Amino acid sequence: MMAKRSRILILAASIALGLLYVLPVWTIDLEAPQYPEGLGMVIRLNTIEGQKPHDLANINNLNHYIGMQRIVPESIPELRIMPMIVAVLMVTGIGVAFLGRRTLLYAWTVGFLAISAIGLADFWKWEYDYGHNLDEENAIIKIPGMSYQPPLIGSRQILNFTAHSWPGSGGWIAILAASTAVVVSLSELRGRRVSADPKAASDPSETSGPRDHARATALTTVLLLAHAGCTEPAPRPLLAGVDGCADCLMILDADGHGAEIVMRTGKIHTFDSAECMVNHLLTSAAPDAVHSTWVTDFSNPTELVPAESAYYLVSSTLGSPMGLGITAFARAQDRDGATHAFGGEPRDWEGVKALVAEAWPGGRPAAMHGGHASTLVLDRAPAGG
What we know:
This protein has helices spanning 4-16, 55-66, 78-99, 102-132, 169-196, 198-201, 210-228, 274-283, 332-342, 349-359; strands at residues 26-32, 35-43, 48-50, 154-158, 161-167, 259-263, 268-271, 290-297, 300-306, 311-314, 326-329, 345-347. With 385 residues, the chain is of the alpha+beta class. The strands form three sheets. Strands 3-2-1-5-4 form a five-stranded antiparallel β-sheet. Helix 1 runs antiparallel to helix 5, helix 4 (102-132) runs antiparallel to helix 5 and helix 5 packs across helix 7. The chain is elongated, with a radius of gyration of 27 Å. The N and C termini lie far apart (58 Å).
């Protein structure tokens, strides 16, 4: 039979699952320059809602632009099934606690973990379907080879949006309940072995108490949280006509002068020129929060190279969007060829930063507009009603 403390823990874990009926199970947040307050979806046990009144409508409008399906909660069968599955878990868990049989505990724990794994796999499949099966024929914005699948857990850059996907408060409760079931099962399995060994059973140091259960459960939860956040921030391709400059608020043109800052959180700031990125670094960005900086290779505008290792040419003939004439290259021979063709002065990354600091000592003039970037970043999707 199960120990009394184990039965109490399983009873508490089972009852706690009832909170999933009132608390959000998962959340997906979207950040973008044209939505300063952000957009968000709340996935509940039986429906999907916007975090704010019009968020879901606005997300569906954005999906229409890129050919994604509309998110219609009534058409998702899992939202009708999940309330029943959680009810079964609760009832059977309470039964395990009252009956106190270890074999039932092990079966309930394995079933709980299996249902959780199947649920996460199904959620990933749902995200994949929405992000890859696009209506390209009727899409207004078409980017060959682009997919729009949000991350299962963590953050990902999608066009000029940063998507964050994390368990909601109800999701964390489910994780804690599953962790409790695992810890109690392991403890009971160990206790069964100890009781079968008279020598071990006579040694009080071989038995575990409620404090051991609490410590083990807390440790398991901390490890789950730590593992969930282990994603390495990385750059992503710049999108001309879509991405906006975080410094001067212009839409990027396909002129080979774009740049990116990747933050340690995974958020990405895009820029129409190297000088705008440097100005942002000098005036706005917290150095400790920056993970990496990238510039577009002028010879291959689809390639981003680390800003520190790029080769730069400052040339008024070649020009750049914000007027300082800074152009970046991935290879020295390409920069030298451009120097021969257009004239100018070769510089390294430190030289580029010094040039921007000297040209704009108080930061970029607010009224300055470049010759190439001329369209303000606007909200491209109509507000939902």
